[in-house]
């Protein structure tokens, strides 16, 4: 069922930047449905293109630390009252959500089923705690793995897995003399405990001598059930436990910082040569070639595990990049562990253009072997990378240390002797970058693995990957996709989106007719809705052309256009209610003059998908018969509905 269509407008009037914000319908003060107080009313925010940058602004505004997730589809329940914001686009450094770009207060095409939410990594208390409380690992055959339990007030109790990570596990393993922590498990992987839940929101630095010395909510203060009991696996006497649990989830806390920002080489057929790009502040950007030399290239090659630098090309030898230029005047000695450790102008400070993008050519190394041991699946909803466990272990890598470009995206599962990591297929998810051309959408990210030694000075191995999704019929990957868009590493393709058309009974667009022959009430206009099953809200539907024929042949030369170039041919007869805003479009048409002498009509419509990030997708109809040519969108199949006739 297509939701009701609204005519939306965008305003540029000044907005109150101090409007109060709250998180509702959650037991935690740092998670919940986002609500804004304006004009004397609390209202919600629509989840159209809602992402982690938007959530970060809300979390910072409320003093709740880093954003962990940006849930959509009213995950914390549907709100009520007005929907104040839609199409929010934050850079992530704004001081208030109302400072971000948006449609205008109260302008939206949403319902409360699309209310946006956030989950923040809340700050916790550091009140004194008894530091000699006994700790044990329960419900495991190994003394160095199991469910974490603490003895307090005469009772053994568990620990909640909220923000449970490898630093916390490290303290437990060290406290029990079990060596290094290998994994920090969530969701009662060693079974549910009983009795009290003593700790929640534990945040260790990793060097504490006792788990109770770490920051936490306070003893017995929590919002958990035993289905969230935390566990650990330590590098103790029995590491085979690792292979007996599937699936389970681990998280790490080594999020990218300016000194370990992910680096990639793009626009080359080799994984160890190409244009140098750095991921910083949620964006991939390039390096200027001023003072660029072999020492600089050597650091990049070593950082990517690509061996010795052979050449340091300048002047965009591997093509010009796009987006920010992050570094300029880089001066490495050649022994730094990361390019961002070298002397340079501050991030984003430069006097360059992309024609000066720096590149490297390295001596190809063992990374190619790692790529050959990897598998990429490009599904409708996810991008999944699986790597053979034996290849990772033989390379000295910890199979469970992986994460995407955003390091908190580290969930994994075991299947068919591979460890699998996945990311949602939408722009911005875990650092995923979306790029489009006339025929395809390309989603790119990278998977990082660390050495088993746990030595933080040892650089991770990187598996870049890209999934290509066709946006039009008969699109072929060969010769159409520019290698600059695919980047390097693993590449695969997925199925394209499907478009649909429905005829509705009234102007509310609630109830549709069944496909096939449709008989409308006498004098009734057409109420038409078209939509796509595309999940990424960055890609919106544009209704390009709709026309009527009196035969089932869509190529019939006798065509009567209702919409052309996204605009009504006759605004007196056709009203476009929504177009270029979301995954659906709808219009109404009064066509009595076209059906007087004909027993029925057939309606044909053509859609396109448009990447609205950085583009204007709403057709601009400047005159009564204005037309618009869409250069930034790609057409889908022609949709046909009918025959349609009217009763007496």
From TrEMBL:
Task: Give every ZP domain span.
Answer: 377-628
Keywords, comma-separated and alphabetical? Disulfide bond, Glycoprotein, Repeat, Signal
Using the chain's own numbering, where are the disulfide bonds? 46-110, 59-120, 90-100, 160-224, 173-234, 204-214, 288-352, 301-362, 332-342
Domain SRCR as annotated: residue spans: 21-121, 135-235, 263-363
Protein's GO biological process = zymogen activation
- Database matches in Pfam families: SRCR, Zona_pellucida, ZP-N
Supply one GO molecular-function term.
serine-type endopeptidase activity
PANTHER family associated with the record? SCAVENGER RECEPTOR CYSTEINE-RICH TYPE 1 PROTEIN M130-LIKE, SRCR DOMAIN-CONTAINING PROTEIN
Under which name does UniProt file this protein?
Scavenger receptor cysteine-rich domain-containing group B protein-like
Naturally occurring in which organism (per UniProt): Parambassis ranga (Indian glassy fish)
């Amino acid at each position: 069922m297509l939701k009701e269509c609204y005519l939306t407008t965008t305003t540029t009037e000044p907005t109150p930047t101090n409007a109060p914000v709250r998180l509702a319908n959650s037991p935690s003060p740092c998670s919940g449905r986002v609500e804004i107080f304006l004009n004397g009313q609390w209202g919600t925010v629509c989840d159209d293109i809602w992402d982690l940058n938007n959530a970060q602004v809300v979390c910072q505004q409320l003093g709740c630390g880093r954003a962990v997730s940006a849930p959509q589809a009213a995950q914390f329940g549907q709100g009520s009252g007005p929907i104040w914001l839609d199409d929010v686009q934050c850079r992530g450094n704004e001081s208030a959500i109302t400072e971000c770009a948006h449609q205008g207060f109260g302008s939206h095409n949403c319902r409360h089923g699309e209310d946006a939410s956030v989950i923040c990594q809340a700050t916790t208390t550091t009140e004194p705690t008894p530091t000699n409380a006994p700790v044990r690992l329960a419900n495991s055959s190994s003394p160095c793995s199991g469910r974490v339990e603490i003895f307090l007030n005469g009772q053994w109790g568990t620990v909640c897995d909220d923000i449970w990570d490898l630093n916390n596990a490290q303290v437990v393993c060290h406290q029990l003399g079990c060596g290094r922590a290998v994994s920090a498990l969530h969701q009662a992987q060693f079974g549910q405990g009983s009795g009290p839940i003593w700790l929640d929101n534990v945040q260790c630095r990793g060097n504490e001598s006792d788990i109770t010395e770490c920051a936490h909510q306070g003893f017995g203060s929590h919002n958990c059930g035993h289905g969230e009991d935390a566990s650990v696996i330590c590098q103790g006497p029995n590491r085979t436990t690792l292979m007996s649990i599937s699936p389970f989830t681990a998280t790490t806390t080594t999020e990218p910082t300016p000194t370990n920002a992910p680096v990639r080489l793009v626009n080359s057929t080799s994984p160890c040569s190409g244009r140098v790009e750095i991921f910083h502040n949620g964006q991939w950007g390039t390096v200027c070639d001023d003072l660029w030399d072999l020492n600089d290239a050597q650091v990049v090659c070593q950082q990517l595990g690509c061996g010795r630098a052979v050449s340091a090309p300048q002047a965009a030898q591997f093509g010009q990049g796009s987006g920010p230029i992050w570094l300029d005047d880089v001066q490495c000695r050649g022994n730094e562990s990361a390019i961002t450790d070298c002397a340079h102008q501050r991030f984003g400070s430069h006097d360059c253009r992309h024609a000066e993008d720096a590149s490297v050519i390295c001596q190809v190394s063992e990374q190619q072997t790692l790529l050959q041991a990897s598998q990429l699946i490009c599904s409708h909803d996810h991008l999944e990378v699986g790597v053979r466990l034996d290849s990772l272990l033989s390379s000295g890598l910890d199979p469970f240390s992986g994460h995407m470009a955003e390091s908190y995206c580290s969930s994994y599962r075991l299947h068919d002797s591979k460890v699998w990591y996945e990311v949602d297929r939408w722009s911005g998810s875990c650092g995923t970058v979306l790029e489009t051309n006339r025929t395809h959408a390309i989603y790119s990210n990278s998977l990082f693995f660390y050495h088993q030694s746990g030595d933080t000075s040892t650089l991770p191995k990187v598996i870049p990957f890209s999934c290509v999704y066709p946006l039009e019929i008969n699109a072929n990957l060969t010769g159409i996709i520019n290698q600059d868009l695919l980047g390097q590493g693993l590449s695969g393709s997925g199925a394209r989106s499907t478009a649909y058309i429905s005829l509705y009974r009234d102007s509310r667009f609630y109830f549709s007719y069944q496909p096939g022959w449709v008989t409308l009430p006498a004098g009734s206009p057409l109420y038409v809705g078209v939509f796509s099953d595309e999940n990424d809200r960055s890609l919106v539907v544009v209704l390009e052309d709709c026309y009527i024929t009196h035969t089932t042949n869509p190529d019939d030369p006798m065509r009567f256009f209702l919409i052309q170039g996204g605009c009504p041919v006759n605004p007196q007869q056709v009203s476009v209610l929504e177009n270029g805003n979301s995954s659906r479009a709808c219009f109404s048409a009064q066509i009595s003059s076209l059906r007087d002498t004909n027993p029925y009509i057939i309606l044909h419509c053509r859609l396109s998908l448009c990447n609205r990030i950085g583009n204007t997708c709403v057709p601009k109809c400047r005159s009564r018969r204005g037309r618009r040519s869409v250069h930034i969108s790609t057409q889908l199949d022609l949709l046909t509905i009918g025959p349609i006739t009217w009763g007496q």
